[in-house]
């Protein structure tokens, strides 16, 4: 509970700062007509979800539109949102719940492109609740009174874990969430620092390779077509730089399409920005990279956020979505 209150307080501070207009996340777009390029910083999370933007950069989809990307790793969407609002990043990648939470706090984030979606298959998703080898836990309900690792608090991991526990007949309020980066979770499970973890790929493959197992498909439990994350900017930056935003949207859409049709390249690009061993590449479960967000699944996340007390008021999806 203390961690939850601290997180909400941080969001309140961010909301008050951005509402007062103290940050200036960028100037006018200078790309295109002059034939030059515009340097663009994008906050990303080092997981399989962002493979398309790395592939798109490699294939020249962004350079073709006059954009020179600098991809900056961060621990999670909750950390990237303040970076975008302060102007540290022009764009960011964030799980959908963190964006909904920002909107509920009057932080003017604006999704500009889709990111990643669930596979739609229970037990065969690209993320799961996992436990260590030999763990006595076999179901989400058994997480009552246990510690579960999430990359950042108040995001899609804890929201979806709560829903898995709830669907299994358990009390989600009895789960204790522990914050840590995804790449630390396999070792934390093995060392019994936590009892379970929210592990998207490649952490999922790493846990399984060590003999761990999954006990629930938490993203699928929210919605089979769950829009897990999106790329976003601030309303202020979008208003000042409509042409730059359009170029980023077009390049990202092309990157998503390319990733969906080139699965082996998705696996290979992952080795350039994560620590996954090459021996695990073929064992990865790939997500889907649809061109558009799935609004019903985002509405479901908003409902769960309200139910679990994450939002003081229901976020306006029309203000958030492209």
TrEMBL record:
* Gene Ontology, cellular component aspect: periplasmic space
Keyword flag Repressor: no
Signal is among the record's keywords: yes
Which organism's genome codes for this protein?
Streptomyces paradoxus
Question: Where is the protein found, in the record's own terms?
Answer: Periplasm
Q: Which family does it belong to?
A: Belongs to the bacterial solute-binding protein SsuA/TauA family.
Gene3D superfamilies named among the record's database cross-references: Periplasmic binding protein-like II
Recorded protein name is: NitT/TauT family transport system substrate-binding protein
InterPro entries xref list: SsuA/THI5 (IPR015168)
> Which keywords appear in this protein's UniProt record, sorted alphabetically?
Signal
The stretch of residues making up the signal peptide is: 1-19
């Amino acid at each position: 509970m203390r961690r939850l209150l601290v997180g909400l307080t941080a969001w309140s501070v961010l909301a008050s700062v951005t509402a007062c207009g103290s940050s200036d996340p960028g100037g006018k777009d200078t790309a295109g007509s002059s034939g030059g390029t515009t340097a663009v910083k994008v906050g990303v999370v080092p997981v399989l979800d962002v493979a398309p933007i790395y592939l798109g950069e490699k294939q020249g989809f962004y350079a073709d539109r006059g954009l020179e990307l600098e991809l900056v790793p961060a621990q999670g969407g909750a950390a990237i949102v303040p970076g975008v609002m302060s102007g540290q990043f022009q764009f960011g990648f964030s799980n959908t719940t963190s964006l909904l939470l920002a909107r509920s706090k009057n932080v003017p984030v604006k999704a500009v492109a889709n990111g990643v979606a669930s596979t739609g298959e229970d037990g065969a998703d690209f993320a799961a609740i996992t436990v260590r080898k030999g763990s006595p836990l076999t179901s989400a309900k058994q997480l009552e009174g246990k510690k579960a690792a999430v990359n950042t608090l108040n995001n899609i991991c804890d929201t979806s874990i709560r829903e898995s526990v709830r669907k299994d007949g358990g009390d989600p309020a009895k789960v204790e969430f522990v914050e840590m980066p995804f790449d630390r979770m396999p070792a934390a499970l093995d060392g019994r620092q936590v009892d379970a973890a929210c592990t998207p790929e490649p952490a999922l493959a790493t846990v399984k390779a060590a003999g761990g197992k999954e006990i629930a498909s938490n993203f699928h439990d929210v919605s089979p077509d769950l829009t897990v994350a999106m790329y976003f900017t601030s309303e202020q930056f979008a208003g000042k730089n409509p042409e730059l935003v359009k170029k980023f949207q077009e390049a990202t859409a092309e990157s998503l399409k390319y990733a969906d049709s080139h699965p082996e390249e998705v696996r290979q690009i992952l080795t350039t920005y994560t620590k996954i061993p090459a021996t695990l590449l073929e064992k990865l479960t790939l997500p889907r990279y649809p061109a558009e967000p799935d609004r019903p699944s985002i509405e479901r996340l908003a409902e769960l956020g309200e139910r679990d007390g994450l939002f003081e008021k229901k976020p306006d999806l029309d203000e958030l979505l492209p």
